[in-house]
Each structure stands twice: as structure tokens, then as C-alpha cells.
Amino acid sequence: MEKFNISSLQNMAADRGVSVGTILKGVVLAYAIALIIFLIFAALITYSDFPESTIPTLVVVTTIFSIVVAGARVARRARNKGWLNGAISGLVYVVILYFISALAYPGFVFDRSVLYMLILGVLTGAFGGVIGINLKSKYHKKK
Description:
Radius of gyration: 17 Å
Shape: globular
Number of helices: 5
Structural class: mainly alpha
Low-confidence stretches: none
């Protein structure tokens, strides 16, 4: 029986078109985009009459946009299964987000809204993956 190690896990993932490094790079890009958008809106809210009541909606829209971008970027780098790569990147994004939330807020609980965000992250990541894999094939056809 062959010994199980991390390189064999990476080989299995690569055979299936899933790249751990690419997914992590996509998630880092998504967080960078979200940070930039949040900084812009923080300045708008601070220095203008922008209504603070829009913050929850802004957070959700920014998160969705960031996950779609991450899914598309990851899928453009993938050999196949863009939807799967995108879905995994969305899942990783939301899991990291809620892990940080649990560390930052001692009263954090796993409730229905967390489950909804996990599902939303997977679905929007998969959507971004579909977009990315189609952009990849469209780009390669032009060459």
C-alpha cells in the first residue's frame, strides 16, 4: 500500500483540475478587492452624507463581487472544471471570513445566516468559475 502524503494529495487535486495554490491566490485577490472597496466606502460614509443604513447591503454585495472575481480568476487558471474551482474558492473565502469573525468576536455563533453565506459563497464562486472558464476558452479561440 502506498504511503499517503501531501504531494499525493496535490497530485490527485491537479489531476481533477483543482489547484490549491491557484485557489488561495484567488481568495487573496478577493480579499484585496474587498478591502479596497471597504476603504472607499468607509471614506464615503465618513466624509459625506452617505447613509450608514446601507452598510449591511454593501458588505454582502462586496463579498459577492469579490467571490465572483476570485472564482473567475481561479477558473481562468484551471485546466477544467471551472465551476468546481470557483465553488471551492467561494467556500474557502467564506470559511476564512467566518474563522476570523469567530476569533474577533467571542460571542460569534454558527447560525442560519452563516449557513446562508456559505451557500451563497459556493454558488457565487461557482458562477464566477463558469464565467472564468468561458473567458478562458473565448480568449484561447482568438489566438
